[in-house]
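Re: your question from the hallway

Yes, I did run it. Sequences:
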Amino acid sequence: MLAGPVVSNHRFASLLRLAGEAIRVEAQFGTQSLEALAWVASTVGASVYVPESLVRTPTGLRFALANPPLRVGAFSSLSLRVDGVVVPSDRVRVRLGPACPWRETALLTPSEPLELAAGTPIEFDADWPLREGGGEITLRLEFHNVAIPPLVWLEVRGTPREMEFP
Amino acid sequence: MSEPRVAGAAGRRAPVLLTSSASAVLADGRGDLCYARESRGAITEWGGVYAQLVRLTGPWTLELADGSTTTDLPSCRLDDAPFPGGWRSHHRWNGLSIVQDVVAISPPAGAVRRLQIRSTSERPVPLTLRSRFSPYLFPVLVEGIRPLEFEVRTAADDISVRHHGFGLRVATTVPPSRLTLDGRPWIGGQYRGALTAFASEHEVTVPAAGSLEVRWQLVGGLVRDLDAAVADAGGRVGSPDEWAARRADDLRRWTEGTPELEFPDAPEFERAYRSARTALRQLYTAPAPEMVGLVAGYPWYSAIWCRDLAVMLPALLWLGDFEWVARSLDTVFRFQSHQSLPMLAGEPGELPMQISPGPIFLYGTSDSTLRFPAVVEQMHRHTGDLSSVTEWADALHRIVEWGMGRSDPATGLLRHGGEAEQISETTAALTHVRYGIDSPDTTIWDSADRRDHALDVEVLWWETLRSAGQLHGHAADRERQATCEGLATRLAATMRDRYLWPEERYLFDSLRGSKPVARVRPNALRAVSAGLLDPSAARAAVDRATEEDLTTPWGVRSLSSRDPGYDPRAYHDGQVWTIATSWAADAAFSVGARARGIEYLRTIASRFEAEDGFANECYRGDRAEPYNSCFLLGFSVAPFLSLLFERLWGIRAGGMDDTVRVVPAFPDGWKSARLRGLRLAQGTLDLEWSPGTVTARWNGRRTLSIDTGGSVREVLPGTTASLDLPPFAER
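Structure:
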């Protein structure tokens, strides 16, 4: 019952497996390597998706990133999936911070790409109504860089907050 | 204020790169440590200070204000130039003459900037100097992520900024009078939170008809090393003159220990050799006492990538830096995995993709591990030192076992692909936020899917088996030697049997399952250079590679322009890579096509010259324009250096039994060539070539046996011998 209701058996097994690996890394390469790995993992985990930014809007949802995920550069397409379903690109908008205009992701092309640098904040707004009273959802973003083909992706599991109006 | 300038396109001036043993400074040469460069298709700012493979800062600017007006350094710049060990810019503003010196330092690792301000005014001139930088404090390897939160502290002598265990300390010879965090005044003490820009102001007065000097020192890396290094240095701000003199002396001594090459008939090759040698030296790094290597390139690969290191180390053997090679190999093999580590995609026997004094970054490439056995074997041939051969043979045996675990027992082919997927699987259930790059394969062209049996990876596997077999032989382990030789023989037969592509008179790029992947890539030429094909097939492949769909005037494409998947901007599916041009040169020489080999080398040399001594990573496939390219990559200089010795001079070291083979491939029309100071085992060798003859002077402790292809001659220590060369068989 150690895992209890808050930690699934699957997750508990994963945690145990990871802990075992961490011990092996420490045994072979020392505490400092393991510690530094933890710094990096912690920073990467905390520096892209803005915690609690996922909110339900009158037409769908909105969320934000504080850094591009793992790659800088020009992105010729960007797709959003909600619980595995692709949101049509003409219903997804993106902007690089509140001072920038929204851009429809359907209009991103190799010659009109979305340009992301380290530290660039990115906001997403999608017309994709979420089911009433629904719980946790999974968002998946896929970015296609103009120079390096493999997709860069980000997955976030979270429960949307209700949007606060002033 | 001056406008930002973007580098990376053709015709722009070269960047400023200053390096020390554990730090680097990047700038655009206009006066501040700013450097905007196209990266991955968009403009990214790479200027600033790097140390211990950690990016310490983003752009770092200095401004001067006299109460009514303000200037930045680029706006008042007169000129700039490197000086031995550093870089200097001259500026003039409001009657003041300003000289700025910038030097990379270590230890502590970082940079020193100095402003010397001279006034001709009859009255003292009060000034405010403003320093502003953006803290970064994250390993360079993690692309695209800048930490959000930092801890800032003021102390008696300096100001520190930290993020986890990464940190920087900045000190000045003139204490700050005002501090700001993101433009907000800060009285000092301790701050923890978001931070984009840290700035300090320093009030100074330039004496009447006099001058003053202000220095900034910004150092950092891992906090655990940083504080000790600063303490050891006495906490003082270093003198750029002393640091620069030390760096210049270090470079001079290193250069004096390397061979000199003279090609009177091709002075462009002499210049290219010297340029590539200096460029390679800039990549040396020792980010921690027990960690030595070369960084892959600048700006965004300024980390130790083991694949790149393995490509560079043979050039260091030719340059005679045996110690750096040995220490680099010791460093990498210390990280050889002894257990399965799915979290890092590591398997027993495997070598990592990237290493640093902080975290180890991932195993899980198909080729990094396979590149090292041949380097170990070559090190033994150059040094002649077999004292540790048993330990090395054991380490290589672990690699062979790792490779055997991935091999098809029937064909001997090694399977690659899927390496990175296990990392994602390992962490899938643990976090609410996951990231990844859908990279199903991790060969040298790691953005292309070349599963399951890319030919160049099979060649590396064959070289691994052959090198391991040779080392086991030296270690008198006949059983393992025979096993490796048997596996290598079978693998070679499979490659000859499965990869020939008669319709194209070339070689298939890969096998997916057992089905050939019919794509024309330069990687296949590695099988030619390895001597795995019969002469007619090898020659046909070299001829095919010279067609214009693969070979351009600025180098060799990563994929034929006739391929349906060709894209001139795609990193590994169309762009021109200098390392691919080196492969083509290597293959051409290996089949006796001297003229073609020379032309490929000349293409590379012309790039070095056009790029002011730097060597771009890659270019667009449709024009000679760097695109998504580091401005200096070890891949682009080291193979060129090796080819000058291995193919043009035709030298093969045999230091273990005091032999050397010298079969030059100088083209018709050349009248002479000289090589002085080639380090070999316990001595140095000088060679002088003229058509039909090579004269050798040997300065060693034991007799050297020289094989010129037609005859073998014993040369006594301290003597000179003239040897006849057989006619070159041009094919």
